[in-house]
Amino acid sequence: MGHGKEKRGPLTDEEQQKKTEVKEKWNAWFQEAKGLMVNAERTPEETAGLKTVLTKLLTVNPACYYIWNARKSLIETELASLSPEEARKVLTSELHFNTASLLKSTDNSKIYSSWYYRRWLLSQLGQEAWLAEPAVWMKQLAERDTRNFHVWDHMLTVRAHGALSEDSWREYAMNGEASNYSLWHQRAGLVRGILDSGDDVTSTILREFEEVMMANAQDPTGTSYWHYFVWLCSVVAKQETIEPFAESIETIVALAADDPTTALPRDGRRCLERGLGLVGRGELLA
Amino acid sequence: MSVSLELEKHRRFIVGFSGSSDSLQHSLSDYLRINGIYWSLCGLSLMDPEYIRSDFNEEEIISFTLACRNGTGGFGGFPGFDASLVYTLSAIQVLALYDALDRIEDVEKTVSWIASLQHENGSFQGDHHFPDVDTRFVYCAVASLSILDRLDAIDCSKTISYIVSCQNWDGGFGLKPGRESHAAQAFCCVGAVSILKSVDSIDKDSLVFWLSTRQDTNTGGLNGRPDKDPDVCYSWWVVSTLAILDSLSFIDVPRLVTFVRRAQDVVDGGIADRPEHMADIYHTFFGLAGIALLDETGGLKAIDPTYALPVDVVARILG
């Protein structure tokens, strides 16, 4: 879609030549793949050749959904004639290939078809493979793009397969930077689960207000935790009384106004107004 | 500073883009060609409905679009490519622009294929290759069937319930239940419930607030999620959703329009994701579409925020 590409001048002759070469290779490989795919009676050598050319195509253009579909069809056909042990080797090799593709670049890590292919491989390999996922992706989330919603989606799917312990998930999702909205989203999911259980509702809400205070101290100009504040106020508004939470709310308002040199961001202020409105304490900002 | 809208340059950019078949990028983007055709034609239609006939060969495009349909009844991104909901909607939108929906032979096959992708809980997967669901696919299915006047083919009640389950703590919508809110998913979910005449089933107030905080105070541009950079395409995803919810007053319109106009390439035409970046067909269309929704002085035709098609085309389809 062309996100994030800076405008530049015309290509040099050398750059143009290189692009022409890649285009010619792409077109040739694509025609080769199509030719092999239509042949239902492929020899083993032709099947190996098809896998090789699909690898080349996916290396150049992993965004092409059609090629991932073709690879799945190829592997499915291959698996049908293999023993469980042999099938495992093939699927494991495919998983390594898919991992390398996803990790190759930020753009690659945002390709839907690549993630779909991965989850298909995991479903074929079974629980042991799902259990190995956190080690790969939690590290990626921590070190690379912590806002990549594909990785977050995948980790939640891994969790749904029972392959990520609640403790590990909580440790990750509830110990992050103040300005990472994706972490606040995961946090809200976890806390909602705690609140829904009905246990320690008051102490949980109070603890979460403290998290907002700490986030504000860490990043006074941030806005992510202000959205979380709005949600907490909506939860408070549903309690029998707001009294247990009044002091926390007043403290947060005071913190927001504390340092006149650090202007509350416009959206932070709007969130503060909205939250206070939900609990009927709008006068605190008067 | 007033930044004029360079419509004639954008027109040339769109036409030129489609003719750039020699480039590497053209080959590599074959898989979403039908999306590109829809963005191009709809963008031109917003300037002048006749451009899609004067600047392009209507019959060639209709034939190409129909050639993207395969034996399943669904459409792929390019002739010979596998069918997927994402390309099926664009194909149907292209045929709608040319008033050529009746050129789909055995349209029931397409309807059945779309309906076959619905899950028991009302969600949709994108094709029959992978079972992954996404609210994008919900919108694509619902919009496609609405244009074909066959919403009766799916369980609309379950679809509505599913969309409601995708609304998050912050009022936004994610790609499935429990996933982080994203403005493009908000469009998909709200667009779908709007078509299904059930906008009241969602928490409109929370969503409008969340969408209204997408505007960057420095540039006036809109982002898709908190703390992300502004991007011209959100001038459609966010604005159209707010338009459906009758809540455009929550956006500083002049500042947003200025942001989009500044993302224009005033030399070669086209619109980029943000100022000083390279223009592309996707951002050109969504930039024009956003301005068409907002700016009465842009010289653009009116666009329907639910179907992302000119209002006269939608009026023709929905009769």
Automatic annotation (TrEMBL), chain A:
Per the similarity annotation, which family is this?
Belongs to the protein prenyltransferase subunit alpha family.
Annotated region Disordered: the residues are 1-20
Could you tell me where the Basic and acidic residues compositional bias lies? 7-20
What Pfam families does its record include? PPTA (PF01239)
Q: Which GO terms describe its molecular function?
A: protein prenyltransferase activity
Key word Repeat present: yes
Alphabetically sorted, this entry's keywords are: Prenyltransferase, Repeat, Transferase
State the InterPro entries in the record: Prenyl_trans_a
Q: What is this protein called?
A: Protein prenyltransferase alpha subunit repeat
Q: Which GO terms describe its cellular component?
A: cytoplasm
UniProtKB/TrEMBL annotation, chain B:
- Per the UniProt entry, what are the Gene Ontology biological process annotations, in alphabetical order? protein localization to membrane
The cofactor note reads: Binds 1 zinc ion per subunit.
Q: Which cofactor does it need?
A: Zn(2+)
What are its E.C. numbers?
2.5.1.60
**What is one cellular component GO term in this UniProt entry?**
Rab-protein geranylgeranyltransferase complex
- Keyword line: Metal-binding, Prenyltransferase, Repeat, Transferase, Zinc
- List the catalysed reactions: geranylgeranyl diphosphate + L-cysteinyl-[protein] = S-geranylgeranyl-L-cysteinyl-[protein] + diphosphate
Keyword Nucleotide-binding included in the entry's annotation: no
One GO MF term attached to the UniProt entry: Rab geranylgeranyltransferase activity
Ranges of residues in domain Prenyltransferase alpha-alpha toroid: 5-308
The positions making up the signal sequence are none
Q: What interactions and quaternary structure are annotated? A: Heterodimer of an alpha and a beta subunit.
PANTHER family, per database record: GERANYLGERANYL TRANSFERASE TYPE BETA SUBUNIT, GERANYLGERANYL TRANSFERASE TYPE-2 SUBUNIT BETA
Q: Which family does it belong to?
A: Belongs to the protein prenyltransferase subunit beta family.
| Annotated function | Catalyzes the transfer of a geranylgeranyl moiety from geranylgeranyl diphosphate to both cysteines of proteins with the C-terminal sequence -XXCC, -XCXC and -CCXX.
Query: What protein name does the entry list?
Result: Geranylgeranyl transferase type-2 subunit beta
